[in-house]
Amino acid sequence: MQMDLKIAAQAVREKAYAPYSNFKVGAALRASDGAIYVGCNVENVAYPEGTCAEAGAIAAMIAAGARAITEAYVIADSPDPVPPCGGCRQKLAEFAAADVPVTLATTDGQERQTTVGNLLPGAFGAGHMDRS
Ligand code: THU
Fold first, then answer.
1. 5-24: b or e for each residue (b if 16 or more CB lie within 10 Å)?
2. Which atom of ligand 1 is nearest to the CA of 84?
3. Domain-wise residue ranges, the chain
4. Annotated active-site positions, please?
5. pLDDT tens digits, residue range 28-78?
6. 2-120 belongs to CATH 3.40.140.10
7. What pLDDT is attached to residue 1?
8. pLDDT tens, 102-115?
9. Could you tell me if the CB of 88 is within 6 A of ligand 1?
10. To test the ligand 1 pocket, which listed residue (12, 15, 23, 103) has its Cβ within 8 A of the most ligand atoms?
């Protein structure tokens, strides 16, 4: 993992809008175009309308015209590296191969390395609709 991805995730985390949970999350994705796309969580007073950091980063990547994630980094101020929520695992899997590395981190420097495939074993994919 190159430092630029970590620095990007740290920086965007500071911009998170999380007045309800006070839990700021930053996500940085490297894409196949070589660029880094970032996102932070954006909460809403109508709680279910809030969006996760990973979703924001994916939206930025797609809006820029990139389609494939090659590496991901997620950081939060948690006691141990907080894994992405279930929905974000599926969102990452839409644009990342199973072997794409994901680093989960805490603001105090802990890091855990995993992959998109390990985060979402048995993922639902397009092949499951083949008979429809
Ligand atoms: N959150 C993320 O942004 N990404 C995750 O992977 C876990 C959770 C956000 C959503 C909400 O704004 C806050 O963290 C608390 O759940």
1. bbebbbebbeebebeeeeeb
2. 6
3. 2-120
4. 54
5. 999 999 999 999 999 999 999 999 999 999 999 999 999 999 999 999 999
6. yes
7. 63
8. 999 999 999 999 99
9. yes
10. 23
